[in-house]
Structure formats: structure tokens, C-alpha cells
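One-letter codes give the sequence; backbone shape is given numerically. An example follows:

. . .
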Amino acid sequence: MAWLKKIVVRDFRNIQLAELKFSPNINCISGNNGEGKTNLMDAIWYLSMTKSAFSSSDRYNFRYGSNSFSLSGTYAMENGTDSRFSISVEDGGAKKLRRDDKPYAKVSDHIGVLPVVMVSPSDISLVSESGEERRRFTNAVLSQMDHAYLTDIQQYNRLLLQRNKILKSYRPDLSLLKVFDERMTEYADSVYRARKTFVERLCPMVGKYHALISGGREEVSVRYVSDLDKAPLGSLLAASVQKDMVLKYTTAGVQRDDLEFLLDGHPLRKCGSQGQQKSFLVALKFSQYELMKQDYGHAPMLLLDDVFDKLDYGRISNLLSMVAGSDFGQIFITDSNKVRLTGLVDGITLDRAYFDTREGNFTQLQ
């Protein structure tokens, strides 16, 4: 497995400069809210995914008063060698991504090289927000495991954008729309099959991990919902073309896919408490972790950002007992309660590193 040995962060969020060395096992970052714990986790995520886990635009990642940021990480790779990955971003400029000082031909070629899973309080948007959040989650997982999927969803979205542009024109060309329909259908079918298989594999794992966290008090499941459950995309687009021309956008396709999260057969969003929703989301992310480990043949990095929030002590203990097993690789944990964090982690392993955070500055503790 790849694990992060050292990171250098410059002008990222509230971090002016940080150079940190990590344990290959568990790394604990404590500090008050707003001091920079999550920003460090996001920097680690960025080195894997080439974008922030929280901001859609890089301009929100620049430290106040700065118009650029850079990240670099030295990783121990699966083949036993070390590699250095670096990303630099300037306001208005192109994103520069390098491995061992050699630039990538395409940024997307890096996705999946450093597999990572993050659990954070922002995951609640997967329950509370629209299907777009759940599609983003699905895309992030599948893009790391399957580069062909990443290509297919990128091509589909590009064609969808062009089709919608035609629909917005004064007199849409029906023959041209038909050409786009045929091209989109091929990519949509591949995306649909990949997502369907993903959910079929994911659902029993979510149930297993949720039972471990909650003590088996509730039963949970995940259901995939797609327009393509009814018919191939080409047929759906042909049937909806008149409506699309009136509304001026494409009303059928995998861009409308969704995941339904169920608690004892009822919608989690409506029936689950904050603690139940949190437990489900942790189980969901741990299931993602297991799927990625199966497909990669080794464990991805696991980032647990404030996961103890809204979980009772019993569920916290169950959670940490899970990650203490040999099945897990390098782990990063943040918590605002240093005493709680050290008490829980010291009871699991002595192979760990502690860091304290204050105003974007990090101090390693003994």
C-alpha cells in the first residue's frame, strides 16, 4: 500500500507553511475548531484527488492574501520505492501536477494512484442534500477504482453539455440531437452498469459495518435509482425530445441517478436521528474503503475528520476497534478533544503520532 511519509503545505487555507512527517499507522491531529485540522486533511485529500474535498473552486483554497498554493507529499509506494507528488495552483493559471518532478500528461491520469477515503462531518450532505451529492460520491469512488469509468463519465458529461446547448438554441436541429443521443447512449450504458454493480457490492458491506458500529440495533440498505432501469438511454431520449426542446435541457439520463439510503426500510433522511445518520455515513465510507481495498489489493489511506462528533462512546469504541485491525493501512484522525483522542488511541496501539494544531501551525507531540 502507499502511505504518506512527509507532506509540505504552502499557503493552503490557513496554513502558511507546514512540513510534517507521519507514522505509517495512526496519526492523530488535535486542536480547537477553526485552527486547521480539517485543512491539513483536505491537503492530504488534494494530493490524491487533485481537488478539495470541500471547495468546488480553488480560489477558496488560497491562504488569505495569497494568490497561489502548493502541496507536495513523499509516499512509500506499493513496490517498495518512494515517490514525490507535487501540485501547484496559481490564481488564473493552470494546475501543475508532477510525480518525481515529471509532469503528468493529464491531471486525470493521477486519479487512483494514491487511493484515499475520507469520513467527515460534511458527509451529512449525502443524506440531506440533492442527488448531485450522492452522484459526486459515487463518481469519486468509481473514478479511483476504474479509470475507464472516469473516462466514460467525463465523455458523457461533455456530450450532455453540448446537447443542452443545442436544446437552448432557437431552432434545435433534430438530426444533430439524434447523433448526440447515439453517442451518449454508449457511455451512459457503461456508467449505468458500473454504478449498478457498485451498489450491489456496497449494500451488504454497509449493513455489516453498520451492525458493527451500532451493535445491530438497526438495519440499513442502499438502493440505486436510475432512468435506465426503465429502458436504454437512446429510447428515453427519443421519447422525451419534445419535452426537452420545451424545457431546453435533457430530462433523462444518468445525470439524474440517485442513491436511496434506508433505515429499517424507511428513508434515512426523514426517519434517522443525527446519531443514526452519522453511524450510517461512517458505515458507508468504511464499505467504500473495503471495496477499494479489494480492487486495489491493498488498503487506501483513511482520513477520519471529527468522526466522534454525534457518536456515543459505545459507537466510538466500536469504530476504533474496527480501524485497529490489521486490515487497515495508514489512518489520520482529527478531534478537538485531545484527552479523548489520546485516551482512545493509546488503548489501541503505541504505533501512532500526535500533532497539535493552532492557527495553521502544527507541533508534533511526544
About this structure: The chain has ten helices and 15 strands. The radius of gyration is 22 Å.
